[in-house]
Each structure stands twice: as C-alpha cells, then as structure tokens.
Write a structure and sequence with these properties.
This protein is mainly α. The protein has one domain. About 65% of the residues lie in helices and about 0% in strands. It is built from 19 helices and 2 strands. A two-stranded antiparallel ribbon has the order 1-2. Helix 8 runs antiparallel to helix 9. The longest helix has 25 residues.
Length: about 350
C-alpha cells in the first residue's frame, strides 16, 4: 500500500516503460481504473514477456532469454477476456501466489508439524523480494510447477512429478536443473536395477528444455545462450569473484540496500548448506545447492551478484529451515519489521524503475 501510494502521488513514470517500444498497451490513462494497480508492477522482464505474448520471438532476438509458457498463458487469457497483458498477468499471478503459499505449506507439512509449516509460509510471504510474485513475471507459475513436482516426488508418484517438472522447464530456462534433486529422491525410493524405466523417464525434463530451445531457434535468429551472454551480459564466474565484487560494492556504496540483501542471502545460503549437509538432508541440500550455484556462478558481467534476492524465492528448503528455527520473540520482531521495511522500499524503487532484483 505504501508503494502504491507513492506511485499515485508521483506523476513521472520511470524511463524503463517508455524506452521500450512494445509497452504501448500498459494503461497510461490515469482515468483507467487499472492504472494504479497494474502499472507500478509492469516493469523490466514483464515487458519482454509481453513482447513474447504478442509476437513470440520474431521481433526481438533478446526475448529468447525468456521461455514461452507464462506469456502464452497470460496472452491467451488477455485475448479471452479482452483485456491487456498487464491486467491479465496481475490476476493470474495473484491467484498463482495463493497456490504457491498453499503448496509451500503442504511441502513443509511433509517434514514438519503444522506450526513450522505455517511459520514457513509467513516468513516466505514477508521476504523482501516476495512482491515479485505479484509482478508480471514467470516465477509464480514456475514455483507452482516446482512445488508440485517435489510434493509428488516425495509421494513416490514419479509420473506426475516429471510432468510438472517438464512444465517448469517450459517456464524458465534454469528449471531444467531440477532433474538432479529429483534423481536423488527417485534413488531414495526406488532401487536402480528394478526401476530402470523410471530413471529414463527423467530424461523427459531436459528433452522438453531442448524442444523449447528448438522452437526459439525456429522463431528467432538468436539462441537463449546468445541472449543471456551477449544481450544481458551474463557470464560464468569463479566462486570467489561474485563475493569479492560484492564486498567492493558494499564498501563503495554502503547504503545500497538491494545489493546488501543479495550479499546477506549468499552468506546465509552457504551457512544453510553447511548445516543441512551435516544433517544428511540430501534432497533439500542438493536442491538448494543446484539452484544457488546457477544464480551465484552465472553473474552479470561474470562478477556482480545479480537478482539473488528474487531468485532466492525458489530456495524453499531454506524457508522451511527458518520456520523450524527456535528464536526469541525479539529476533522475530526484528526479522518481520526489517522485512516489511525492505519490501516497501524495494517496491518503491521498482515502481520508479530502479532494478532492485
């Protein structure tokens, strides 16, 4: 509400929305009842998803950095109800966010009691970057697929687990990496010799990923690797480089809160990986390790921490770990009050076109 209040009281929209020539369908008329609801959320990646919904990958080669399932769904709903992409995405992601909270609660209940599961969802919902779940980004759709895949894998229903993981591989490029933790869960439930067919079935996930790449190459002149590398300056880094670059940035700009939060998340994730490794929670440990490795080692210009706070929303086991921690009420008050402060600050920055995650 604070973020929306700022958006209403300031007249100038960020340059981000008018620099891109495919943003003309964003409600710009302040008499439009949707203006103050959807416009502050329609920034950055949302504009690329909107372009895919309208033209697939034909007009903008750099759109291959984004996978098609989310813009296809949002674009189809926009056409069906005769509304804009931004309005359609707002309602879809609002609904999907509630599903994410429910599924996260259900996943936590498979390992913990009801109180821990509830605390997990509350901590997740108040996380500083959680407002991205309502933005026209693909994260909520992806998280629904990933959570369903994990839940069905732990129930030993591997067919549905692979199906939902494959849908995730159509939503975000990095989702294909879930094949590794699913392999560990499969190995825990089924002996390799007697269930060799189930292991081959896992290959459906990278196969879907390759089919999406093929579709993109058919539609566009550039691949996802070109778009991420040349277009978005994403490069692999040595493990020490992002951390050292972030320390230098913290010294140079000590009040750059978005980058400071990235730094804190990296340190805490390393702490979690050490703690959970000792407890032999292999599937959770590997899940966090794989996705953390992708976001940490594949960085903007190969050294700077980039969007770690938003990407950390997929670190579901860490939030369950936090929900299970026994801490004093003072620590809880500090966490939630600082999270609320940062959430509002990040949302206001994001509204004005500053890339916070």
């Amino acid at each position: 509400m604070v973020g929306y209040n700022f958006a209403i009281r300031f007249n100038r929209l960020p340059l981000t929305t008018r620099e891109m020539d495919f943003s003309e369908d964003i409600p710009m008329d302040k008499k439009d009842p949707w203006y103050f609801i959807v416009s502050p959320l329609h920034r950055f990646d949302a504009l690329w998803y909107e372009e895919i919904a309208k033209n697939n990958y034909k007009n903008q080669p750099l759109t291959t950095a984004f996978f098609p399932l989310f813009p296809w769904i949002v674009g189809s709903m926009a056409k069906l109800f005769h509304t804009t992409f931004a309005v359609s995405a707002f309602f879809i992601n609002t609904f999907l966010t509630s599903i994410v909270f429910y599924l996260l609660y259900h996943l936590a209940r498979m390992d913990f009691d009801e109180n821990v599961a509830f605390r997990t969802v509350i901590i997740y919902a108040f996380f500083p970057a959680s407002f991205f779940l309502l933005a026209p980004y693909a994260e909520p759709l992806l998280f629904v697929f990933i959570l369903l895949s994990l839940i069905f894998a732990k129930r030993a229903n591997f067919l549905l687990s692979v199906v939902f993981a494959s849908l995730g591989a159509m939503t975000k490029p990095y989702a294909v990496a879930i094949v590794l933790p699913l392999f560990v869960i499969l190995h825990q439930n089924f002996p390799l010799k007697k269930n060799i067919f189930k292991y081959f079935f896992l290959s459906l996930i990278p196969l879907i990923f390759l089919l999406v790449l093929g579709y993109q190459n058919f539609q566009s002149t550039k691949s996802v690797f070109f778009a991420l590398g040349k277009g978005w300056s994403m490069q692999p880094a040595w493990p020490h480089e992002p951390l050292l670059a972030q320390i230098k940035m913290a010294i140079k700009s000590p009040y750059d809160l978005p980058n400071d939060v990235n730094f804190i998340i990296v340190l805490f994730t390393v702490y979690y990986l050490i703690r959970s490794y000792k407890k032999r929670q292999w599937e959770n440990w590997l899940f966090v390790l794989v996705f953390f490795g992708i976001f940490y080692l594949y960085q903007f210009k190969g050294d700077q921490l980039f969007s770690v706070s938003r990407h950390a929303l997929i670190f579901f086991p860490i939030f369950m770990f936090l929900g299970n921690l026994k801490v004093s009420k003072i620590i809880e008050v500090i966490y939630f009050s600082s999270s609320i402060l940062l959430s509002n600050m990040f949302f206001i920055y994001y509204t004005f076109g500053f890339f916070v995650a």
